[in-house]
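lol forgot to send this yesterday, sorry. struct tokens for the thing we talked abt
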């Protein structure tokens, strides 16, 4: 009988960056906007994120393989009587490991971290074309209560 290694969810380290970048490019939308050939842009963003309090990347690890990631940002604000909110971004599960409850477990961990930080709300945005992701988020209890908008300010680095 073969046993699968346990899933470990932890704060990402710089050494995880190549695996994270690979997951970011591993879908139809990511393939058009991510470039893994030069990790220096991701390393620069990593350093900026590490310098900002309340901003972390979580990874899901099976054995020694990074198979999922998400970014969790705690945002102070004045709305809702000064409530802290958590923003979840960049959610990915490696295509070879989807359908194994990895995303659910990452979200449960991130939500617990948000709760422990005193957040009263967890929010995320998702591309309108990611219909499978919408069903996943709704299954986790998220509601599409707002319409999000984005304004692209700069062209991607080639």
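and heres what i got for the seq, position by position
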């Amino acid at each position: 009988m073969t046993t699968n290694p346990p899933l470990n969810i932890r704060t990402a380290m710089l050494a995880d960056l190549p695996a994270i970048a690979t997951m970011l490019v591993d879908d139809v939308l990511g393939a058009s906007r991510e470039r893994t050939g030069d990790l220096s842009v991701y390393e620069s963003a990593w350093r900026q994120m590490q310098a900002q309090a309340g901003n972390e990347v979580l990874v899901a690890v099976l054995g020694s393989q990074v198979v999922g990631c998400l970014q969790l940002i705690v945002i102070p604000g004045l709305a809702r009587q000064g409530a802290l909110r958590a923003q979840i971004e960049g959610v990915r599960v490696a295509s070879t490991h989807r359908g194994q409850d990895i995303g659910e477990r990452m979200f449960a961990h991130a939500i617990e971290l948000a709760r422990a930080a005193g957040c009263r709300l967890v929010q995320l945005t998702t591309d309108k074309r990611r219909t499978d992701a919408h069903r996943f988020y709704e299954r986790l209890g998220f509601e599409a209560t707002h319409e999000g908008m984005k304004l692209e300010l700069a062209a991607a680095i080639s």
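The radius of gyration is 16 Å. anyway ping me if u want another try
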